[in-house]
Amino acid sequence: MKIVHVASELFPYVKTxxxxxxxxxxxxxxxxxxxxxxxxxxGYRSVVDHPLTAAAKRTLKLxxxxxxxxxxxxxxAFSPKLNLTVYLVCREEFFDRRFPYGTxxxxxxxxxxxxxFFCKGVVETLRFLxxxxxxxxxxxxxxxxxxxxxxxxxxxxxxxxxxxTVFTIHNIAFQGVFPMRSFYRTNLPDELMGIDGVEFYGxxxxxxxxxxxxxxxTTVSPRYAREIQxxxxxxxxxxxxxxxxxxxxxxxxGIDTNTWNPETDALIPATYxxxxxxxxxxxxxxxxxxxxxxxxxxxxVIGMVCRLTEQKGVDLVLxxxxxxxxxxxxxxxxxxxxxxxEEALRTLAAVAPDRVSLCSRHDEAMSHxxxxxSDFFLMPSRFEPCGLNQMYSQAYATVPLVSRVGGLADxxxxxxxxxxxxxxxxxxxxxxxxxxxxxxxLKLYAEPKRFKAAQLNxxxxxxxxxxxxxxxxxxxDDAI
Length: 480
Ligand code: ADP
Ligand code: GLC
Description:
Blueprint: E1 2-6, H1 18-32, E2 36-42, H2 45-48, E3 57-66, E4 69-81, E5 84-90, H3 92-95, H4 111-129, E6 133-139, H5 146-157, E7 162-169, E8 177-179, E9 199-200, E10 203-205, H6 206-213, E11 216-219, H7 222-227, H8 231-234, H9 238-242, E12 248-250, H10 278-290, E13 301-305, H11 314-319, H12 321-326, E14 330-334, H13 339-351, E15 356-359, H14 364-373, E16 376-379, H15 389-395, E17 399-403, H16 406-411, E18 425-427, H17 431-445, H18 448-460, H19 465-479
Parallel strand pairs: 1-2, 1-6, 2-5, 6-7, 7-11, 11-12, 13-14, 13-16, 14-15, 16-17, 17-18
Antiparallel strand pairs: 3-4, 4-5, 8-10, 9-10
Adenosine-5'-diphosphate (ADP) is lined by residues 17-19, 21, 305-307, 334-336, 362-364, 367, 386-389.
């Protein structure tokens, strides 16, 4: 099949979260399976400057209609491996900036223009290259307008760009809602401005457009696919999702086993496998030492790597701060995000420096060390479309402590409820739920046999992308 992926992030070139990992791995695995895969990503400064994109060559000069003006840009392309071509849609005014979406204070004010331009750049490139895709697959709100723009361009220029369009929701909490007055930049027909079109409480919603106008909608776990049909998790779009129930499917993400494998990981001080966890003990001591703790500490070491936001349940951790201040545990948090949560965690680390440590930076190597060196990995998310770290954790014999939502519930089996296969501890996404989970964690750690069994059960799980990619293959086939 000829498959086009379009996303605002792509590992290893640009990443703010799991979206980058998911798109990078899916595209690469589909290429390995023999499909002809093209991936489009904005040519952000960090991407253009990335050593791995040095080979990118200009393929096309762009002249994009944006409302009543035309904007220029260019597309660069390179092929990182067989069957895979990466296209960078560039325009300095939009993408030559320090961050993909904005600073930690606020999003860039022209994000709608930036991503309308991006999607139009994709459409223009496909038209120019006469690519004729079987599937054009867009991810998250930044690509929400893509299905409409594809079909509109096909009509206008009497060409075929794609048999089918697919849209994946990685997080319905981010919807790309902008003032309706910017709709004219899309050059789409005015009738789409209504309630049956992109209109969402008087504004333009790019996420809504993606959900309504693609041939198939997917999200990243079966449970999240059900959750987003409810007011509790749908963030106002549950009704819209409800109109597409027959076309929505939840396909679990996988993990990139080249990057996340304790047997080969070059970012940790010692490797290990299920045959012997000796190397894990070395990683544990290193993690403790680097975070200012006694490397021989014998109690449970809890790791956390995430964006510091409410989604990730950071406020639930803070509400349980007495536990972390007084129990004989060590908590290592690696993350950046909302100022107030970062400040509160910093205060906790200052009050209990012998127990809690905060690394507030993005640090790929440290994220591997936290996965490898921790006994437990904490993810008390209020909602979680899929989540990747709970899968990395299981591969690294680190027992995940997760709230029972979305992809966390779909990938972690509770060790108390199912001793034969259990590899983690699951709890309700509330302050009390986390408190109860932490008590059960102490119990599990105090029983070395049971704890080891949970570690090994996790290592047995197969979360490879092959399974996930096969699921997408079937979905594409079925749609076509
Ligand atoms: P989300 O996409 O909602 O942030 P995921 O669990 O899908 O959550 O993916 C998050 C990814 O980002 C993981 O690969 C995680 O290791 C990584 N990550 C998050 N914060 C940091 C950080 N401060 N340093 C390094 N990696 C991080
Ligand atoms: C989003 C979700 C996360 C998911 C990731 C990749 O960022 O928040 O749960 O794992 O996308 O699909």
